[in-house]
Amino acid sequence: MDIVITWGAHVGSAPSQFQNTVNTVATFLESLFWDQVTVNITVDWGFVDRSPVSSLGASSTFYDTFSYDGAVRAALISDSHTGIDAQSLSSLPNLGVGTPTVAIASAAAHALGLTSITSVDGYCGFDSSVSWDWDNSNGVTPGSYDAFGVILHEMTENLGRFSFVDGVSTISQQDLFRFSSSGTHQYSTGSPAYFSINNGATNLGNWNTTNGGDYGDWASSVGADMGLAFGSSGVIEPFTTRDVINMDVIGYNYQGVNRDFNLNTISDVLWRNPTTGVTGYFQMTAGGFNGGWHDIGGSSTSYSIVGSGDFNYDGVADVLWRDNSTGITGYYQMNSSGNLVGWRDIGGSSTAYTVVGVGDFNGDHVSDVLWRDNSTGITGYFQMNSSGNLVGWHDVGGSSTAYTIKGVGDFNGDGVSDILWRNDSTGTTGYFQMNSSGNLVGWHDIGGSSVSYSIVGVGDFNGDHVSDVLWRDNSTGVTGYYQMNSAGNLVGWRDIGGSSTTYTVVGTGDYNGDGISDVLWRNNSTGVVGYYQMDASGNLQGWHDIAGSSTAYLVY
Questions:
Q1: Which of 253, 281, 551, 211 is nearest to 415 (CA)?
Q2: How much is the pLDDT for 448?
Q3: How far, in Å, CA of 417 to CA of 426, rounded?
């Protein structure tokens, strides 16, 4: 997804943080959905499409109407790529049951293949008279409103998050998931009305039925959410699991977030006590706060955690395990509630090989398992499918044993994971570029590097949807990254700054839900954990403390 922002005539009078926050929201949405679609939104301050804004935010969305029987049902079935989509098909009415005409936002219609791109998909504007909090990473100031959440509210309406139940003989595609009871759709403004993707069997949240609020928004009973019909000051309004599911079923394709074990679009921190096998995670929440410990359960100490990824394409990260003495490999399948579903066996593997990474090496949006025989250099991956099963071995090829795999990332922005290599004795660095057929295109040289530096992570540290390479001189603490571009080339060095040598980089991920990778640190002697929060300009915003931790546990 590519969201193109056009600024309205009154943006010049907005606070300096306004445009940055709008761009951050756009980056966030782009990072979540892989649809090959361009969305054009005009954003203004105090006005929406030349009309004054009379509420916190307002949107005006272009839409087209389609026959349910003739177009919409087939388009939604054709767009069923994720596990969420597959489940939602049970909610679609059958053909010929008198389903009203369906109104679909032009952006969603593009994503569903029903129309071509238009010059403007929608407008949104924001109240210039209220107090806004532009940074929710330290909470929201009492009396102020969460700017990120409100902007996200209006932009997602431009993407199609709206209802037409107050219209005549027309509903929206979102209303196809509006129920009054199991098996009974609710195509009016009446109550009860709730969101369900399994034909009404499970209530995922109540829709607003109060006059004066949008019927496509949530009722207050769902709790804090960017999609509430009536916002409140002093609180963070997050993009929640139900928002992910809603956007996915109306026509977009969610691609998951690194180490997000509960489908809230925010990376969590995975822990294990290798002595006892106890495993769990710090559940991170909007704004970058630690929501607390979430227990996964015990595990055999003969197994090691060797990675995490979405191995069954349900949008939730799973935990990859291997018994390195026998080669048996499998994963703990997690669900959108953040709980363990159970063990999924992948199969045996040669003990001459080591798991060296997880990534989507063939562009099917399912995580695969990367292997290497470090004594011979032979490299390949276990290709997984959307059912969570092993398809088979896919050979990548040989490699010089002077090189070591340092990470996995999309270093040219083509949606396929590449394999990062370095010769630690010379500093030469580059990557194996993979294509959507799952094959090696060839070696792509990045360049030399000082051997006093080590590669300590991979992530998109400036929000351009291209993976960058994180470096640190562990003797001095100096940290920075190689910024890569969509041509797969090195743009240059970006300095992050110094760091205490008592801390170690233990991961990268989006720990505050803004669509930009942050750098996770731990003092392994004291257990203190926190992260460097990065912004859309690729700069360090500051340190964000997470919590203390038992030194008996390790971060994975």
A1: 253
A2: 93
A3: 25
